[in-house]
Amino acid sequence: MTVNFAHRGASGYYPENTMLSFKKAIEMGCTGIETDVQMTRDGSLILMHDERVDRTTNGTGFVKDFSFDDIRKLDAGGFFSKEFAGEKVPAIEELIELVKDKDIVINFEIKSGIIIYDKIEEKLIDTIYKYGIEKKVILSSFNHYSMVMCKRLSKEIKTGLLYMEGIYRPERYCRFVGADALHPYFYTLRKEVIDEIKRENVMINTFTVNEERYMKYLLKEKIDGIITNYPDKLKKLMEESHE
């Protein structure tokens, strides 16, 4: 069964990477949540896509320069709509608490490409084990060095390699890196590419799929996971495909 990953929560309808967005995604029937991990000046792991707070909050500056307390003072909802003003930037523990007893996979994307956060992999993996959710998590990153580090720290937590372009024989590269999954931009997934990846028993979790025609194609190809801003649309198509 394809995992319906809500991209930063139900971010097509609600402010991304907020607890509201995650809760609404669960109400819409998602079976996975994709989110982004950054680290504050004092070493707290928070959920935000950008290295800067400017786009999604009323603040200015880099996440790395804020303390956790200062990050929490920011408004993370008003950028999307005035009705969501007052939403906070979540700590990763809040999302884990929300889903730890639910049948939901969390895809934590480690944002360690532009800013190299010291020991972010160790901190994240320690937190995952603290809550006992190591079987319900997949880690991903565009920084594949980070994914190699994660495998060194934990053999059992799955890792996925994010990429945008048409990598030649990505399934071989995935095996070389030691990852469990490929997380490609969906435009790269021609049928022959999908078939080669499947032959190597490599998982495919693709992003960010918002149009129904692409959802239908990927469901037909039995992709392992589809990351979407509209988990309700994907759920409806999944139900229809099993009628």
From TrEMBL:
Molecular functions (GO terms): phosphoric diester hydrolase activity
Q: What are the GP-PDE domain coordinates in residue numbering?
A: 2-238
Membrane-spanning segments:
none
Q: Name one Pfam family in it.
A: GDPD
Look up the domain of life of the source: Bacteria
* Database matches in PROSITE patterns: GP_PDE
GO biological process assignments: lipid metabolic process
Protein name, per record: Glycerophosphoryl diester phosphodiesterase
